[in-house]
Design goal:
Helix content is 63%, strand content 4%. By secondary structure, the protein is mainly α.
């Protein structure tokens, strides 16, 4: 329910684009919410970025095998105050994307600033792509949350529950499960801004602080019953390249990628009477 609500709000705001000129005085391009989106998502799994996806799976396997998930869960289960104090973090994980995108979008619309609008659409793309990705993973992996009422119906104890996976279609819901959507979306949107504004060390620090804070929040909330810690770690690792790609991609759009002349190869027959054959060339 919450992922769909977030997507609906983001989509409504994104489609409310102002009618602005294609370029501003500096030659920047006013972007759209879906510019380069397919390429940005594809690049999230290309080259070294694929390593982050593999790292998310490897971290989960390692933490589960070594019972790190169980130890973290038991600590927060025995210290419920952590979870009660984490409530604002959980709310920020839901409201954060909407507030951040909405604020940037309104600012870009009011100032007619392509750079600010590009930042808004980088957040929009990172959030939408990440929500879709993690929802699909939850849909097919079926990992149960570390809740007491799942014992003994799904496993005999919490150690066995942490190793329980139910692959298939919709066998574990799409709210809880692996990986954590709260952590993934937070990491993706902050990473998108950090790479959209590559000179900002403050935003780079925000990625680390925001991701770590959300990992703590989802691991401790509901007395440790919301997520296994490895769900949270995997969410951060697997969402980071999505944010990085969308931030860089939207930056390229705003800086004039749309205005770059398109190149293409051509083959044409020779029209000279003294030459038989064809000419090959390239338009710039």
């Amino acid at each position: 329910m919450l992922p769909r609500m977030i997507l609906c709000v983001l989509a409504a705001l994104a489609l409310a684009r102002p009618a602005l000129a294609a370029e501003d005085e500096a030659g920047q391009v006013f972007p759209g919410p879906f510019d380069r989106i397919a390429r940005n998502f594809a690049e999230s799994f290309a080259g070294l970025n694929l390593g982050f996806q593999i790292a998310g799976v490897a971290a989960t396997a390692t933490m589960t095998t070594l019972d790190a998930d169980v130890r973290v869960h038991r600590y927060f289960h025995d210290h419920p105050r952590w979870g009660r104090d984490a409530y604002p973090i959980i709310i920020a994980g839901v409201a954060g994307p909407v507030v951040l995108f909405g604020g940037l979008h309104i600012a870009g619309r009011m100032t007619r600033n392509p750079e600010t609008a590009g930042a808004a659409y980088a957040v929009f793309q990172a959030t939408a792509l990440t929500l879709g990705y993690v929802t699909l993973l939850k849909l097919v992996t079926g990992r149960p949350a570390p809740r007491d009422n799942y014992i003994p119906s799904l496993a005999e104890d919490d150690a066995h529950l942490s190793r329980t996976w139910r692959p298939g279609i919709y066998r574990g819901g799409i709210v809880a499960g692996w990986p954590s959507g709260h952590v993934a979306v937070t990491t993706a949107m902050l990473s998108a801004l950090a790479f959209y504004y590559p000179d900002s060390w403050l935003l780079k620090a925000a990625v680390l602080v925001g991701s770590a804070g959300m990992i703590l929040g989802v691991s401790s909330f509901e007395s440790g019953g919301m997520h296994w810690c490895s769900d949270a770690v995997a969410g951060a690792l697997m969402a980071f390249p999505i944010g990085m790609s969308t931030g860089r991609g939207m930056r390229a759009v705003v800086q004039g990628e749309k205005n770059r002349p398109q190149t293409s190869w051509f083959v044409t027959p020779s029209l000279r009477p003294d030459m038989t054959g064809a000419m090959v060339g390239r338009f710039y």
